[in-house]
Amino acid sequence: MICISTTSDLLTMPEAIIKCPTCGKALAWLSSNPYRPFCSERCQLIDLGEWADENRSIPVDPDHDDMTEEDLDRN
Ligand SMILES: [Zn+2]
């Protein structure tokens, strides 16, 4: 008798492709990615910032936003 654990095989399928909810970029669903379902920490923070902004009504400083983008370009 052959006993194959198909359920286990499905759970360990390595190539599940999802789309980042923030930027729509396709990425592999990896358990090693701490930011899933986002593609990166940046997209995760953007998403968290959106709901935080709705709940807390934090005013967005346009100067700070510009500095962040320039900083990313330099890096
Ligand atoms: Zn993303």
Fold blueprint:
Layout: H1 6-11, E1 17-19, E2 26-28, H2 41-56, H3 62-74
Antiparallel strand pairs: 1-2
Bound molecules: zinc ion.
Can you walk me through this structure?
This protein has 75 residues and is mostly helical. It has a single domain, classed as Erythroid Transcription Factor GATA-1, Chain A. It is 47% helix and 8% strand. A two-stranded antiparallel ribbon has the order 1-2. The protein starts with 5 loop residues before the first helix and ends with a helix. The site of zinc ion has 8 residues, from loops.
Second-tier CATH architecture: 2-Layer Sandwich
Question: Could you say which overall geometry the principal axes of the C-alpha atoms support?
Answer: elongated
Per DSSP E runs of 2 or more residues, the count of β-strands stands at 2
- The pLDDT mean sits at 75
- What is the H-and-E element order? HEEHH
Span from first to last CA? Answer: 58 Å
CATH class: Alpha Beta
Unreliable residue stretches:
none
The largest sheet is: 2 strands, antiparallel
Radius of gyration: 19 Å
What is the structure about, briefly put?
The chain is mainly α. The protein has helices at residues 6-11, 41-56, 62-74; strands spanning 17-19, 26-28.
Task: List descriptors.
47% helix, 2 strands, mainly alpha, elongated, binds zinc ion, Erythroid Transcription Factor GATA-1, Chain A, 3 helices
